[in-house]
Amino acid sequence: MKTYGINSFTAGWLCLLLGCAHYQSKPLTEQAVQQQLQTPSRAQITMQAAKIKHPLLEPVKFDMANGLSPDEAAILAVLRNPELRGIRDQHGIANAQLLQAGLLPDPKVSYSFSAPSAGTNLGTNNAFGASLSWQATALVWRQNKIKAAEKQQQSVDLQIAWQEWQIAQAAKLAAYQLIVYRQQQALLSEMAQRLEDNRARLQEAAELGLVTELERVAAVSAKNLVDIRLLALKLQIKQQQQRLNRAMGLKPHEAVNLQQDAELVTAMKAPAYDALIQDIGNRRLDLMALKRGYESQEERLHIAVMQQFPQISIGFDSARDNSNLYTLGFGVSMTVPIFDRNQGQIALDRATRQQLFDQYSSRLFQARADIAELLVTIASLNKQIQSVRHAIPDLANLVKAYQTGIENGQVDVFNYYVAWNNLTDKKIGLLTLELQLVQAGIALEVASGLYHAATDFNEKEL
């Protein structure tokens, strides 16, 4: 027991001198998980948002007194989305791989002992031998391994930033969608109330024989159709609220106060196609990540080619034979590349490099195609919005005219409600088009790698 204690003490000091790692358990408990998922305070969010570091997103000052803006929702998603925590852990893995790439192989120490066991042992001694060897060729490709690991680390960091950017944009769009749906709900609720008033009027008129049964049934049917639309929209609002909570890392039933007065885009001006695709490979985060990954694979292929040549180890040995003769020597050993010349690893690394090359080319082609398609969509939505916005004042004037006609007894209430409902439908349609324009603008930001790639402007500039 005493010997065991001395050995443990010696091993502990040796491990301390060599910088050994120590094991520390981290149990996966419900308490630890809940603590990880706990929503931070507003002060903590404000502090984190002011210090955020991202290639595209800029630090913002949170002011949620009047509700959460779409841009603030995007930042909150980057700070709190649980999926990003697992993605960011890849940074630590890449750092460990970089550390491993810079380490040289350990030297090998061997010791042998032999004692005479039979026969004539007169004048003989116990024999022993000790040797120290090290693989010298590890120095040949060490720098290549470090370069490969550095490029891979850069690729991982860019991939993390790309995922953060996509989740931020998704949260921003989800906030805009929820704002629009609530505005549409207000318009539909107003329409439903008008149709209910109209149905009640026609019901009384039908009982007095002033209108036909067909007119009464038509009023009831119109009210029911709007009620169905309103119920579907309320369900859509609940679903969208859950999507937004999920994107921002909030609990399913946690209330989110959004800015209801957030202005939507009424017209959008995007740069020319050539300006958007210029130098996109050095601007869009996922393309930059693929490029760094390709450069890392180039280094790996270079290493595989170098490893097809003989691997050389050098060493020293000291020995004493049974006749008490001491020897000190130097040795060199190397592999003979006859059967395995690292052909399999070279073929694998070459195929992987080609795959990464094709992935980059395909992603670049897709990015350019997406930009071209989005520019067409934005141009079309600009014209549609302009047309609807010009039609709304005419419908509003028609409603006013019907209202005046009712007061003078020249127009019946039914036609007045029809005109009013048509005006409401146009306003709801305009909100839908403006939301589609916001969606196209966010998609253009993602496709081009430019924050605020398109700018809002007055529709007179169309």
From TrEMBL:
Pfam families this protein is in?
A: OEP (PF02321)
InterPro entries listed in its UniProt record: MdtP/NodT-like, OMP_efflux
GO: which molecular function terms?
efflux transmembrane transporter activity
* Domain of life assignment: Bacteria
| Family per similarity comment | Belongs to the outer membrane factor (OMF) (TC 1.B.17) family.
Output this protein's name.
TolC family protein
> Source organism lineage?
Bacteria, Pseudomonadati, Pseudomonadota, Gammaproteobacteria, Methylococcales
